[in-house]
Amino acid sequence: MIANELRKAYIDFFVERGHAEIPSASLVPENDPSALFTTAGMHPLVPFLKGEPHPSGTRLVNVQKCLRTGDIDGVGDDTHLTFFEMLGNWSLGDYFKQEAIQYSFDFLTTKLGVPTDRLAISVFAGDADAPFDQESYDRWIACGIAPERIAKLGKEDNWWPAGGKNPGPQGPDTEMFYWTGAEPVPKTFDPSDKQWVEIWNDVFMEFDRQTDGTFAPLSQKNVDTGMGLERTTAVLQGKTSVYDTERFTPIIHAIEETSQTAYVTHKRSMRIIADHVRTSVMLVSDGVHPSNKDQGYILRRLIRRAVRQLHQLNDREHGIGSVVDACIETLEPSYPVLQQRQSEIQEVIAHEVAAFEKTLTKGLRAFDKLFASSGYVGGEEAFTLFSTYGFPLELTEELVREKGMGVDKEVFVAQFQKHQDISRSGSEKKFAGGLADHSDESKKLHTATHLLHQALKMVLGDHVAQKGSNITQERLRFDFSHDAKMTDDEKREVEKIVNEQIQKKLPVSFKVLSVDEAKKKNAIGLFEDTYAHIGGKVKVYTIGDAKRGVFSREICGGPHVENTGDLQAFALTKEEASSAGIRRIKAVVGDSARKALSIKNR
């Protein structure tokens, strides 16, 4: 079974059982500064796991785009990926353990034809916070799983999030394993045996961990499941590596062609290139551009790591364009928008490659000089290469390792912190569950982004489209499509329009509408990317009313204030380029806005 067949079989199975198919959320979480990327299927659904009604109902299924960079250095082995797809089904206060486990068992054994004797299970063993998961254990026994094939494990293995230390929705889980080794299959399940490969995880969310560490029961019991598409495809095909499946072989072939080298002798390098270019394609498609901060920094790092590996394969021309095309070709059946944005994706990646080529050439030359003069390149020298030439620490480390030495990272970090307070470390912040901030200030800023978006369209033109946003308690950041720097007059006009809507004290409300209804009401939203192809429902926030007129309608998950008057005032604090064709605005509301406006008016 190939990946696209598995994807379809999974969706069809759960739709037949009353689940509504919902679209994948973006790789970039909406208005959630607690995480750089969507790392799991549950991430976009946290408000609904906490009890907010979902527009599509209580039974959901989808394939979620996910990105995890914590193990980025592990990419190159058989299993590690940065971008992957997660098959998931959810029950939001609907069915619970009995049906969830039965669905999982039936899909594996009936739909996929997995023999029961090649399956093993783990369940939560229980501790001081929560009891042994007897119900899940009994259900698996009823399905025909032998007791010796069921392992009872602690929070580090059978609780989500792992360890249960982060605030937010969580609970025990049960995991399904498939025997990938030779016959005969061991009668007893040994979780430490790597030939047992995890293929599915059912999470039973019963608790809401408080910030003080206590566990409170959730208002509703939820089911959140996850099956990695790439890993399960490899298992079903009898492959030991995800890179040997049809999801990657065309990409590997493109790398062989452009580098004129063989995969069999350069597996690690080619896997890194395939993974990193594939992830870069998906990030650019979701509006991320290379930069020195946040998601843009990760994208830059991925592209540059891929270029470095091409360099090691003696591909001095860096024919990465053909690799980009191969990635788009393999993913386009699932994500048609990739073909629509192919030129943009190629342009963004090619621009970063060209910029890094200069860095790579100068940095390598400088490294050789440093090493020749002292016979050593340590933490301070590594920072000099980084700060002067933009030469990545990891590249310096690799070059030094080839000399049989090492780089003192602590010295590098100390120098970095001393001289710069920009950009993140490059590893994503761990998702702690829930939207980052539901405070009143964040709600005000969230509503302000809607006012700003509409005002920009009115002043600059209908070509303006949101390309990203980030909200903290102090300010909003809004990226939008526009080719030119805004003039002072344009900025003043945008401020004026937004403040007028605040003074009018317009009501803010939402309705759950079908895609067709939302389109008829001219709601702002990327229908072609999300709901249109599956006919889902959307949440549309409206600012204004019939009496005073509607100022804005926009697809959004919320939350927002109930009246624009709550914002008090609005002020732009910065307008700058984010990347080619993308501008970035930072703005504040409330007292901060009043102070900023007062200074401007002096």
From TrEMBL:
GO molecular function: alanine-tRNA ligase activity; aminoacyl-tRNA deacylase activity; ATP binding; tRNA binding; zinc ion binding
SUPFAM superfamilies membership: Class II aaRS and biotin synthetases (SSF55681), Putative anticodon-binding domain of alanyl-tRNA synthetase (AlaRS) (SSF101353), ThrRS/AlaRS common domain (SSF55186)
Cofactor binding note of this UniProt entry: Binds 1 zinc ion per subunit.
Gene3D superfamilies linked: 3.30.54.20, Bira Bifunctional Protein, Domain 2 (3.30.930.10), Threonyl-trna Synthetase, Chain A, domain 2 (3.30.980.10)
UniProt-listed CDD domains: AlaRS_core (cd00673)
Keywords: Aminoacyl-tRNA synthetase, ATP-binding, Cytoplasm, Ligase, Metal-binding, Nucleotide-binding, Protein biosynthesis, RNA-binding, tRNA-binding, Zinc
Coiled-coil segments: none
A cellular component annotation (GO) from this entry: cytoplasm
Gene Ontology terms: biological process: alanyl-tRNA aminoacylation
InterPro entries recorded: aa-tRNA-synth_II/BPL/LPL, Ala-tRNA-lgiase_IIc, Ala-tRNA-ligase_IIc_anticod-bd, Ala-tRNA-synth_IIc_core, Ala-tRNA-synth_IIc_N, Ala-tRNA_ligase, Ala_tRNA_ligase_euk/bac, Thr/Ala-tRNA-synth_IIc_edit
Positions bound to Zn(2+): 446, 450, 556, 560
Cofactors (names): Zn(2+)
Domain Alanyl-transfer RNA synthetases family profile: 1-599
Catalytic activity entry: tRNA(Ala) + L-alanine + ATP = L-alanyl-tRNA(Ala) + AMP + diphosphate
Location of this chain's protein in the cell: Cytoplasm
Domain of life: Bacteria
EC number: 6.1.1.7
Classification via NCBIfam families: alaS (TIGR00344), PRK01584.1 (NF002436)
Family: Belongs to the class-II aminoacyl-tRNA synthetase family.
Record text about domains: Consists of three domains; the N-terminal catalytic domain, the editing domain and the C-terminal C-Ala domain. The editing domain removes incorrectly charged amino acids, while the C-Ala domain, along with tRNA(Ala), serves as a bridge to cooperatively bring together the editing and aminoacylation centers thus stimulating deacylation of misacylated tRNAs.
Stated role: Catalyzes the attachment of alanine to tRNA(Ala) in a two-step reaction: alanine is first activated by ATP to form Ala-AMP and then transferred to the acceptor end of tRNA(Ala). Also edits incorrectly charged Ser-tRNA(Ala) and Gly-tRNA(Ala) via its editing domain.
PANTHER family hit by this protein: ALANINE--TRNA LIGASE, CYTOPLASMIC (PTHR11777:SF9), ALANYL-TRNA SYNTHETASE (PTHR11777)
Protein name: Alanine--tRNA ligase
